[in-house]
Recover the amino acids of this structure.
């Protein structure tokens, strides 16, 4: 069985260089909408082909790891303070003070492992959208990687900085359910109010890697695991931490409009859109889209409650808002960067406004 550090390291190899999806026909520079739609379809076909190739490569790597001897965990975990190259020793789980000494430091093995979204401005036709895509309402919070291993649960931001540590009922996440080596769980979550983890996606559960499964299967497994472990959703005398499911619906007009009428248990930040066949790959992915609630009527012809219009006080169009956002955050499309030979600059749409407030 492979160690968690080995498997986390392999996530880097699963990255696909996604060409950005271009413009929605509503914004297209092409006068011929059918031409723009064909270019859009071609980009998606090419990306899906690359994803299939990456899946096969990843499968072979993990099979070799599983067949290999189950060595001890690597003790050379890189721990770097902000702005330094300080190397720390591995966490001693028997020492309570040691459990907190690495909080605020970077573990480079966990940096840049989250799958990130793109603005959903190149939208498939309704038939494809309703058949192949899912919508997830997303709370305002911090986008984090949760790693439960060796009897402790750790939370990392997208840069690999450790935010906190605690014991949880996740497999591998506390000493009583630590089990054998290789029993670990990795989740993609939104952290709200410091103790509520809303689960977006599942990377591994109990040592079983899920990255090369399509999104709809991963969500089924995630919801099943949370349902089978109700204690994860209930605070107790040992911890206030909760791991909560998020609602999801198919991208059909009626279902989306009903979802938008929901009184969520959290403050809604935006909507994530996942293609049902997308694998979990770190970095920005054109098959994971992002919109603000007030953009839904203009871009998807989905009516939303009036209260969401307050998030657009300047009464901008979606295009004006996105252009201003990209300018403010020095965010250019991946295709533009590729053309100009620039390095990729990743902006996490899910939490960027939260970070602005923190700064």
């Amino acid at each position: 069985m492979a160690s968690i550090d080995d498997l986390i390291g392999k996530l880097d190899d699963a990255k696909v260089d996604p060409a950005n999806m271009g413009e929605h026909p509503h914004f297209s520079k092409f006068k011929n909408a059918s031409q723009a739609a064909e270019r859009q379809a071609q980009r998606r076909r090419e990306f899906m082909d690359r994803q299939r190739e990456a899946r096969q490569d990843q499968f072979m790597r993990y099979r070799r790891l599983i067949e290999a001897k189950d060595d001890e965990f690597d003790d050379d975990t890189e721990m770097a303070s902000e702005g330094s190259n300080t190397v720390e020793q591995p966490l001693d789980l028997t020492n309570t003070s040691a459990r907190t000494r690495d909080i605020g430091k970077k573990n480079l093995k966990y940096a840049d492992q989250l799958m990130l979204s793109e603005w959903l401005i190149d939208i498939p036709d309704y038939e494809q959208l309703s058949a192949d895509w899912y919508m997830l309402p997303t709370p305002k919070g911090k986008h984090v990687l949760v790693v439960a291993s060796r009897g402790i649960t750790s939370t990392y931001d997208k840069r690999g900085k450790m935010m906190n540590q605690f014991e949880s009922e996740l497999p591998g996440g506390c000493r009583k359910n630590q089990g054998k080596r290789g029993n670990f769980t990795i989740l993609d979550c939104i952290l709200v109010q410091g103790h509520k983890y809303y689960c977006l996606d599942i990377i591994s559960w109990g040592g079983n890697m899920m990255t090369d499964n399509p999104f709809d299967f991963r969500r089924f497994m995630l919801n099943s695991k949370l349902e089978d472990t109700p204690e994860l959703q209930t605070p107790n005398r040992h911890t206030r931490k909760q791991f909560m499911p998020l609602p999801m619906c198919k991208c059909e007009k009626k279902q989306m409009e009903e979802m938008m009428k929901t009184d969520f248990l959290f403050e809604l930040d935006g909507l994530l859109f996942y293609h049902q066949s997308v694998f979990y790959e770190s970095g920005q992915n054109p098959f994971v889209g992002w919109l603000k609630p007030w953009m839904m009527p203009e871009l998807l012809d989905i009516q939303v409650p009036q209260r969401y219009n307050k998030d657009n006080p300047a009464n901008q169009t979606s295009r004006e808002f996105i252009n201003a956002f990209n300018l403010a955050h020095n965010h250019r499309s991946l295709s533009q960067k590729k053309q100009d030979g620039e390095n990729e600059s990743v902006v996490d749409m899910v939490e960027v406004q939260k970070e602005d407030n923190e700064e």
